[in-house]
Amino acid sequence: MSTFALQRASDRHLERLQPLCAEATARHAGLWSARKASFDPGVWLAAHAPVIVVLDGQTPIGFAAALTEGAPLGFPKNAEAVVYVSPAQRKHGAGRAAMSELLAAARTMGVWKMVAYTLPEDAGARTLLERVDFREVGVLAKHVQVEGGWKEVAIHERLVLAARRSRPSISDT
């Protein structure tokens, strides 16, 4: 089992987060490859979005972020939750730890609700969201085009005010 550390992302992580974001959106069959806007951690940090980076030693292996630009109806107290862990590092708890920490950080920043989107066949993402108390609220039929075909998208939500911890375990420094 891998050991990893969680840190609140800052400008010092930017150079190492950018390749991870590119890796996350590069998969042609993935939901994120269909996004209109690419993942840009520089924009996230400039907007003071809660972003958690997962490190294996000094090497970033994943991230979780609460993005307000993808929030339903653009409501400022809602955010879209995104999480990514490099394939070689999956199934060791890094994604779950990052999401749990993200929920705590988002709560302290005043976020009320997070939504997340998955492809219904992505069992790993759905299980992760379920384990951090997201609930599936519906499926959008033929919502996104991936690899030339239309795919359904499952919507998950989590009321952040119901977070198990009221304070993040890591600091901004």
Low-confidence runs (pLDDT<50, min 5 residues)? none
Shape: globular
Count of distinct strands = 7
Number of helical segments? 4
Strand content: 25-35%
User: Order of strands in the sheet with the most strands?
Assistant: 1-2-3-4-5-7-6
Q: Summarize the biggest pleated sheet.
A: 7 strands, mixed
Question: From the helix content, strand content and strand pairing, which structural class follows?
Answer: alpha+beta
Mean pLDDT: 81
> How much helical structure, as a percent, in the residues?
10-25%
N-to-C CA distance: 27 Å
Helix-strand string:
EHHEEEHEHEE
The rounded Rg comes to 15 Å
Task: Briefly summarize what is shown.
This protein is 25% helix and 32% strand.
Describe the structure.
The chain has 173 residues and is α+β, with helices and mostly antiparallel strands. The two termini are 27 Å apart.
Topology, element by element:
Elements: E1 5-8, H1 14-26, H2 41-46, E2 51-56, E3 59-67, E4 78-85, H3 94-108, E5 113-118, H4 123-131, E6 135-146, E7 149-159
Parallel strand pairs: 4-5
Antiparallel strand pairs: 1-2, 2-3, 3-4, 5-7, 6-7
Task: Supply the key terms.
single chain; 173 residues; alpha+beta; 4 helices; 7 strands; 32% strand
